[in-house]
């Protein structure tokens, strides 16, 4: 058995940032990070657009809004200090229809409320920033950018080990038991005993919480997002980041264009219900996960309420032409011949029994464990601040013991 002060479950960017922040704040603490895969950042942290969000989308006063602004600055500082790839290139959110202009104005008001550097621009100014984009008006966000979150995770592993703590891979959690005032995390690499546990298991956070006796009200429902990449011959059509005006009913931002840190341009993602928590292929199925989703009353209510929108997402998933049409609303010159398939990602989305998607970060506590039960975008941007928040709370909990 490995005896540590804190066991962090999950080697994604939130779990690693939490371990790193604990080591910075309390050098005497020994942390053990356990990750079920052979390497860190194999799921959400390594399968996203790499966008450094500015904080415009989130309800003022929410955990997302509060953590995104500070977390973004901490992420940029870390990347700069460590020499990791990142770029503050700016983003435009584009209204392509009259019906979207009012929503764009509401989004601008939210930017002001959140202290985001934003400016409403007309079609002429949009053409100066993104000559191939089409739109009536847009919001320009000069602070938005991109980073390589997988590279951030790999560097965090180095720094955590330098702090004297552990990062153990291939350590899938099999169970959690309590032993007096300590928790024992049983993994495929042995047992890890600690005074506190931080559950940052992402796609499996609800199941890990259940291992501690917690019965979270929200359940993880996985949504798959599929990406294409622009061929090199078409990459000039996108200079930086081009986003649509999001549908306020959903926490998804719509298919968009992202110029990555390596200069390649990705398009996507859509958002379809995944057939498994790691079912990245279109026809890949994990029976247990699928059964849990389709028998969960929250998902059934969500599906019934949003059947039309869901059918549209499935259609775009199955029909490349429909996906291209969505992209052409933003950049009309993009054609089917310009797109090549890229990787898919799966979002761990917490859903309530009434079918409501949890729109904010969700963190709960039990006596000897803390659970991050919902940490979708902008969790990667906000990771250092989420980690700091968890570290501060863990310090308080240990002091109370």
Low-confidence stretches: none
How far apart are the termini? 22 Å
Gross geometry: globular
What is the fold-level CATH name, i.e. the topology of the largest domain? FAD/NAD(P)-binding domain
Q: Got a strand count?
A: 22
CATH class assignment of the largest domain: Alpha Beta
Number of domains: 3
The percentage helix is 25-40%
Question: What portion of residues belong to β-strands?
Answer: 25-35%
The CATH architecture assignment of the largest domain turns out to be 3-Layer(bba) Sandwich
H/I helix tally: 11
Instruction: Give the class from helix and strand content and strand pairing.
Output: alpha/beta
How does this model look, in words?
The structure is a single chain. By secondary structure, the protein is an alpha/beta fold. The protein folds into 3 domains: 2-46 and 150-218 and 359-400, 3-Layer(bba) Sandwich (FAD/NAD(P)-binding domain); 91-142, no CATH class; 219-352, D-Amino Acid Oxidase, Chain A, domain 2, CATH 3.30.9. 34% of the residues lie in helices and 26% in strands. It contains 11 helices and 22 strands. The strands form 4 sheets. Strands 6, 7, 8, 15, 16, 17, 18, 19 and 20 form a 9-stranded mixed beta sheet that branches. α1 (13-25) packs parallel to α5 (149-162). It starts with a strand and ends with a helix.
For the structure shown, list the relevant keywords.
single chain, 401 residues, alpha/beta, FAD/NAD(P)-binding domain, D-Amino Acid Oxidase, Chain A, domain 2, 3 domains, 6-stranded mixed sheet, 22 strands, 34% helix, 26% strand
């Amino acid at each position: 058995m490995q005896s540590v002060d804190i066991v962090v479950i999950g080697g994604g960017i939130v779990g690693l940032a939490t371990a790193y922040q604990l080591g910075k704040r309390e050098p005497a603490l020994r942390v053990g990070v356990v990750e079920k895969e052979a390497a860190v950042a194999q799921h959400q942290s390594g399968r996203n657009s790499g966008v450094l969000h500015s904080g415009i989308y989130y309800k003022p006063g929410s955990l997302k809004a509060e953590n995104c602004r500070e977390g973004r600055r901490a992420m940029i500082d870390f990347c700069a200090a460590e020499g990791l790839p990142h770029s503050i290139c700016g983003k435009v959110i584009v209204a392509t229809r009259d019906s979207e202009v009012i929503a764009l104005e509401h989004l601008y008001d939210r930017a002001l409320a959140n202290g985001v550097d934003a400016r409403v621009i007309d079609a002429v100014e949009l053409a100066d920033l993104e000559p191939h984009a089409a739109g009536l008006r847009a919001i320009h966000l000069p602070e938005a950018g991109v980073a390589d979150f997988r590279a951030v995770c790999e560097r965090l592993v180095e720094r955590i080990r330098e702090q004297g703590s552990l990062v153990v891979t291939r350590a899938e959690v099999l169970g959690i038991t309590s032993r007096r005032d300590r928790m024992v995390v049983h993994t495929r690499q042995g047992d890890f005993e600690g005074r506190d546990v931080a559950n940052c298991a992402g796609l499996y956070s609800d199941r890990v919480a259940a291992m501690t006796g917690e019965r979270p009200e929200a359940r993880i429902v996985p949504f798959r997002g599929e990406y294409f990449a622009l061929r090199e011959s078409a990459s000039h059509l996108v200079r930086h980041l081009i986003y649509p005006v999001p549908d306020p009913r959903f926490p998804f931002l719509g298919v968009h264009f992202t110029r990555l840190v390596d200069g390649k341009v990705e398009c996507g993602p859509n958002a379809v219900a995944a057939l498994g928590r790691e079912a990245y292929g279109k026809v890949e199925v994990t029976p247990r996960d699928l059964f849990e989703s389709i028998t969960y009353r929250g998902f059934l209510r969500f599906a019934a309420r949003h059947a039309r929108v869901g059918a549209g997402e499935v259609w775009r998933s199955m029909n490349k032409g429909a996906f291209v049409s969505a992209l052409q609303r933003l950049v009309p010159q993009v054609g089917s011949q310009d797109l090549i398939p890229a990787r898919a990602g799966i979002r761990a989305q917490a859903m309530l029994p009434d079918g409501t998607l949890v729109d904010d970060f969700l963190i709960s506590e039990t006596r000897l464990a803390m659970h991050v039960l919902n940490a979708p975008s902008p969790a990667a941007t906000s990771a250092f601040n989420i980690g700091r928040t968890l570290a501060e709370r863990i310090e308080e909990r240990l002091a109370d013991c």
